[in-house]
């Protein structure tokens, strides 16, 4: 299925506008109906372009037919600026499958391979995807942390600026995910004063002027959500995200896509714990799932406006 049949767009024009106007497109990870509708609701309220991100494990969890059925049911229009993106595809086959069922953007993550092997794996995906006008993201450097079976690592390696021009020119990718100190999961920093490696980002941006750069593992981990989870029976301690001001600074330096997953998980969990605790006799899932959907929508709205700066940008697209 061609993604345009679902009202989706690829990321090329979205990124071009974000680079020109110094903001980032949020890529919110989804894994069920509530997360999908929360993301879409927030985008429509804020008039923001949004990338609906689906990891390989989330696609397996939902099933391809169910996911595409939900996307179709959302009645998306191409004027709204929604892209459907495969997050951390591990090989050519999963990227090919995503393209064939209607994704408008895919990520091939061969970052744990050697530079040569990463180039070869990425170019294979690019050659196929570009036949269908699908955008391709790849990654240089590796992030530590755990979100699911496809996004985990015990060590991190910063992106080497000396490699970026060679990689982009050899692969013809549409965007590049870089490692400058972010990490997957809810435990991104050990101290509140830790800074991203803006010197590395600055050098990469200098070498790749006006080229779309991406931050993975960039949830802000709102402490109010942690507090709510723990107040109502949870046990999450020491969770720290990336500071909002640092993320905003990054959007002024060619970062035009910021991935957010953990924040939505925390919002979902906080709302459900609170709802079930306050109404212990309730066994109607529609009630506590509605609370979760509302909390996730608000979380997305806050990040669209206060981190990404993408609110009211949809009017710039044809």
Please, could you describe this protein's structure?
By secondary structure, this protein is an alpha/beta fold. The chain has one domain (3-316): TIM Barrel, CATH 3.20.20. It contains 12 helices and 10 strands. The chain has helices spanning 12-21, 33-46, 56-62, 64-73, 92-101, 115-129, 161-171, 198-207, 223-231, 244-251, 262-278, 285-308, and strands at 25-29, 50-55, 82-89, 105-108, 135-140, 145-148, 151-153, 175-178, 213-215, 255-260. An 8-stranded parallel β-barrel has the order 1-2-3-4-5-8-9-10, surrounded by 9 helices. Strands 6-7 form a two-stranded antiparallel sheet. Helix 5 (92-101) packs parallel to helix 6. 50% of the residues are buried. The model has no long low-confidence stretch (mean pLDDT 91).
SSE string: HEHEHHEHEHEEEHEHEHHEHH
Number of helices: 12
Task: Give the integer mean of the pLDDT values.
Answer: 91
Rg (C-alpha, Å):
19 Å
Strand order of the largest sheet: 1-2-3-4-5-8-9-10
CATH superfamily descriptor: Aldolase class I
Question: How is the biggest beta sheet arranged?
Answer: 8 strands, parallel, barrel
